[in-house]
Amino acid sequence: MVKARSTDNLKAKMSKAALTRMVFAGALIIILAICFTIFVSQEQESRRLQRKHEELQTIKAGLEAQKYELEQLLSIAGTPEYIERIARDNLGMVAPEDIIIQDK
């Protein structure tokens, strides 16, 4: 009878240990799944932000080129060369010594 009790007691302890291991393994799997999901979503966000960064870098380069051009125009504004450029480009005027060639 004593052996039967200790066998039942041992089985109960082993059953509790097995149940504890299974609960721990289940919790570990759930935690790993959550971590993996977070990692994947952050990778996607990182790629999206990288594309946006590249797009903004392209826009920035264009704006810097435009700024440089405007600074050049500002530096010559009011000079005879600037006035001539405006007259030629915007008003279609020509200098007296220019030769005009027209397409038919």
* Residues in β-strands, percent: under 5%
User: What is the rounded distance between the termini?
Assistant: 122 Å
Question: Unreliable stretches, pLDDT < 50, 5 or more residues?
Answer: none
Quickly give the structural class: mainly alpha
Global outline:
rod-shaped
Mean pLDDT: 87
Number of domains: 1
Walk me through the structure.
82% of the residues lie in helices and 0% in strands. The protein is mainly alpha-helical. It has one domain (2-89). It contains two helices and no strands. The chain starts with a helix and ends in a 15-residue tail after the last helix.
Present the secondary structure layout.
Blueprint: H1 2-76, H2 80-89
Summarize the structure.
The protein is mainly α and 104 residues long. 82% of the residues lie in helices and 0% in strands.
Descriptive tags:
2 helices
